[in-house]
Write a structure and sequence with these properties.
It is a single chain. Strands 1, 2, 3, 4, 5, 6 and 7 form a seven-stranded mixed beta sheet that branches. The protein is of the alpha/beta class. It contains eight helices and seven strands, in the order H-E-E-E-H-H-E-H-H-E-H-E-H-E-H. The protein has helices spanning about 5-15, 55-65, 65-85, 100-105, 110-120, 140-150, 170, 195; strands at about 20-30, 35-45, 50, 95, 125-130, 155-160, 180. Helix content is about 40%, strand content about 25%.
């Protein structure tokens, strides 16, 4: 466990260095038996702190107003990387995690559109991921925001489904295009009859 003040001080120094970097986790399409895209993930080698997990530094970014700038940086980096793959496979997509604080700013969808336009990035190749717990209490705002982006062709994924307070009714309302079930429900699928069901 890291001290939040220590993390904040180190983060402020890291913003202009290569300590913050991107990794890309492949998304495998079982039906097509191929990699169909990737999820863009921000990582941080905190120097003297060593590797700092996102669960430690993302909340600090959110609390100190850094998340919007870094979130947009991640989005741009992810789209640049995806375009290289799209030169080989045009349907290749990229998934980018979004903080609820970015969305609640009010101009989030405009900033996404601006970056897609600047990079000539096809909206159908972009998936924005929001953790389920972040939708609690903000469902209508998030729904309106993503309805606007969805009308442009962007897809929405609900991450970590089952860890927050969403109900199956919310899925019926079409809040998301993709549902990512939390690993707690599938990690023992090979040895638990309950998990298989």
């Amino acid at each position: 466990m890291f001290n939040s003040n220590e993390v904040l001080t180190a983060l402020e120094k890291a913003l202009n260095t290569s300590q913050l970097y991107m990794v890309y986790q492949p998304i495998f399409n079982l039906h097509a038996q191929r990699i169909s895209g990737f999820e863009a993930l921000m990582r941080w080698n905190g120097g003297n702190l060593g590797f700092v997990p996102p669960i430690e530094f993302i909340p600090v970014m959110e609390e100190n107003g850094m998340i919007e700038t870094m979130g947009l940086w991640v989005l741009e980096q992810a789209m640049h990387a995806c375009k290289k793959w799209m030169a080989v496979e045009p349907e290749f997509s990229v998934s980018v995690n979004v903080s609820a604080l970015q969305i609640l700013k009010g101009d989030f969808q405009e900033k996404v559109k601006q970056r897609m336009d600047a990079l000539a990035f096809p909206s159908k190749n972009l998936i924005l991921e929001l953790t389920e717990s972040n939708t609690v209490g903000n469902m209508q705002i998030i729904q309106d925001m993503f309805d606007d982006l969805r009308s442009q062709g962007v897809r929405l994924a609900m991450d970590d489904f089952g860890t927050g307070y969403s109900t199956l009714e919310n899925l019926k309302k079409g809040v998301s295009d993709v549902v990512k079930i939390d690993q707690a429900f599938v990690k023992d699928i090979q040895k638990s009859e309950f998990d298989v069901l």
